[in-house]
Amino acid sequence: MSSENRQKIHPRVVAEAAEWFMVLSSGNVRPDETAQWQAWLASHPDHQMAWARVEFYTDKFKSLPPQVAFAASEALNAPNLNRRRMLLSMALLGVAGLSGWQVSRGRYWQEWSADQHTALGESKTITLADGSTVVMDSGSAVNVDFSVNLRRLQLVKGEIYIETAADTGWKRPFVVDTLEGRVQALGTRFSVSQQQNRTQVAVFQDAVEIQPADATSVKQTLGAGHQVQFASNHIEPIHRHNQNKPAWTQGFIVADDLPLSEFLLQLSRYRPGYITCAPEIADLRIIGSYPLKDTDKILAFLEANLPVKLSHPLPFWVKVLPR
């Protein structure tokens, strides 16, 4: 996600959300901590957006204890949900168990049943029946649906990079559908990322046409060297980029003046466990390209070159603290 396109949330708030996420995932949550988290989540819309961002980047939301996971999901979908209703929902779910919550939310079944998946830290290249190539980022899921009239991908989760091939003898449109709408290739190389209530598209060659799901009269042609985010009812302003391919397809994570809290969230998509940072250092700026094949080396580099130190409160938790 580019620094231009990120929703404006203070890095300190993102760091606080990540810290709460780790506390609630520890499996040893005190009642007073649950109450404090609920109060924090309800106190400002930015807290809810930051929680959603942590959910997207860590892809570990479903590993939360069921009561907490359900309450978080309800809070995101209905910010004015009162405490009594939330606690009642948590109690009911405690009887139903995590599997009931996952089925009720629906999207996890879609992820598990998708045609193609990638695990945490894994990327995959697939060749489609028409010769097009799809590269899948870490923690992604996609369905493939080719018919006599249409070449269609459904991006369920994560990010994909596509190089379309000529549809010899058929001339069928090539489209990618997301929760927010449709992206149609116009003979092109492009990437599509399913984010929290947004789809991001970047074009590297030729062009695509974007059509939001709930605004069928709104269409936008996006040319090479440009990227944009869109929701189900509108398309946001277009921005330029200078990449030939997404950095992750070449094994790198790129930071262009990125706050430390955001950088660590993105890094967490490529390694097991959790990474959090103290709120007071959340706004430290990160610049550079970092190879993803060894995320421990990235953390060691940060410790050596920034006024920070690494702590390991638990085997699966890396905490970045002020030095």
Automatic annotation (TrEMBL):
<feature type="domain" description="FecR N-terminal">
    <location>
        <begin position="16"/>
        <end position="55"/>
    </location>
</feature>
<feature type="domain" description="FecR protein">
    <location>
        <begin position="117"/>
        <end position="209"/>
    </location>
</feature>
<dbReference type="InterPro" id="IPR006860">
    <property type="entry name" value="FecR"/>
</dbReference>
<dbReference type="InterPro" id="IPR012373">
    <property type="entry name" value="Ferrdict_sens_TM"/>
</dbReference>
<dbReference type="InterPro" id="IPR032623">
    <property type="entry name" value="FecR_N"/>
</dbReference>
<protein>
    <submittedName>
        <fullName>FecR domain-containing protein</fullName>
    </submittedName>
</protein>
<dbReference type="Pfam" id="PF04773">
    <property type="entry name" value="FecR"/>
</dbReference>
<dbReference type="Pfam" id="PF16220">
    <property type="entry name" value="DUF4880"/>
</dbReference>
